[in-house]
Amino acid sequence: MSDSTIELKGSGFTLSVLHLQSSNVAETCQALADKIKQAPQFFKMAPIVINIEKLDGAIIDFTELKQKLADLDVVPVGISGATDKQKSVIKAAGLACLNEAKSPTNKQSSDGPTQVRYERVEVPVEVKVPSYTPSKILRQNLRSGQQIYAKDSDLVIIGMVSNGAEVIADGSIHIYGQLRGRAIAGASGDESARIFCHKLEAELVSINGNYWTSEQLQDSVWGKAGYITLDGDSLSATELEI
Amino acid sequence: MAQIIVVTSGKGGVGKTTSSAAIGTGLALKGFKTVIIDFDIGLRNLDLIMGVERRVVYDFVNLINGDSNITQTLIKDKRVEGLYILPASQTRDKDALTREGVEKVLNDLSEKFDYIICDSPAGIEQGALMALYFADEAIVVTNPEVSSVRDSDRILGILASKSRRSEQGLEPVKEHLLLTRYNPSRVEKGEMLSVEDVSEILAVKLIGVIPESQAVLKASNIGEPVILDEQSDAGQAYLDTIERLLGNKVDYRFLSEEKKGIFKRLFGG
Ligand SMILES: Nc1ncnc2c1ncn2[C@@H]1O[C@H](COP(=O)(O)OP(=O)(O)OP(=O)(O)O)[C@@H](O)[C@H]1O
Ligand SMILES: [Mg+2]
Q1: Predicted confidence (pLDDT) at residue A73 exceeds the cutoff of 90
Q2: CATH of the domain at B132
Q3: B153: nearest CB among A140, A159, A162
Q4: What is the position in ligand 1's atom list of the atom closest to the CA of B210?
Q5: Crossing angle, helix B99-112 and helix B126-133, to 10 degrees?
Q6: Average pLDDT, stretch A222-232?
């Protein structure tokens, strides 16, 4: 919406994460204060995320934590690794709850009761926020030689897709009829896209570039109602039964 | 205003010209003023099957170019009242069929006829595209084998996307499936697709099943459309097709192998 005064967009930043190992707030903040003394410039008004995964759901005094961090001149951006119970307490204390993007961090063994550990978590710089685009819906048979592309959306076909026809979508593909041609879902990189169809006899199915030809489909749900999903980099076909 | 029907298939040699001749003649027999146009420029065929090849003076391309007028160019059939043939040119190439030219001829004919039957050439090029572009209805001629079915599917896609009706967002071209050269015993042996198989793959309403028949060859040798051979299986199957085209319900015949006599069935054979 270019004519509005603000614009909301998703972005990723690299932040320091403080991993709490103990529910003793005073003790933790003392350890942090010691750390800050070693590099005061680095921490001056630094945004920081507090990860409380190690607390195993224990409720601590988040208001006190927030206050103590402010006293140390660091800015708590929010809390990550919280359980649902902890989240309501965190929000009541006026802190944000964050979901950390999964990254294979080397989980060090905690070798002390009050360890403060820092790490830099790399998050992708531009995160595309999925904006809602209505599905492309067609009520027709797609014949040999015809091609349909649903950009940024799902594709719904009430009809069949013949041998030699090709249907492509950036999202998922739903076919309420036979699929005998080619169906290419997640064409711009969505690995969660799926292909559903009423009767699966496809020449080719593909999700995010991973494909199966009819040969590989033969021994799964051939001729039946089914759907195709992508798991890692391998496709799987499941019968549609309710 | 005439109803324009294209007889088309994609694949060659499946029976388009045989069917155009039979269907055009059948409609004229029913009392409709009918003209059959040969769109197969360079490979004249319709005039042979209709037995008028020795009476061709002017042709479709002459008419388009204004070298001749409708009265001079149309050939009147001597057997059936109200039946005319517009032959293809044998000397020109298919680029002579321009959209404007074809449209003008069809508009002129439309004022004088009830039905215009367009016998399409094989393939999906200019001639075939021109034959189907102005159609109100399409009879898709298909043989019960995989490659013919595939090509029919392609043509159905073109009808749905490249015809005048689709381009102008009008009611779509009415599609009919005509299965020809159907051989029930080969179907039973699994050597050919069945009526059910083809109907299921193409998802188009069936209008007729013409059996593989000696009568077709015989008819084309004497230059008489097979529908005039009322005793033959193929002739009767085309007569049934005309009834269905006119909206009447007729049971299908010639779908199974000829019944063996009771003795043969009892004692084998
Ligand atoms: N029902 C039938 N039984 C037996 N032979 C048939 C039948 N229908 C057509 N044929 C034969 O098949 C051949 C091709 O028929 P026809 O010329 O009608 O096909 P076409 O589709 O018009 O071909 P083209 O694509 O070359 O224009 C001819 O020899 C014809 O006699
Ligand atoms: Mg022909």
Answers
A1: no
A2: 3.40.50.300
A3: A162
A4: 1
A5: 40
A6: 94
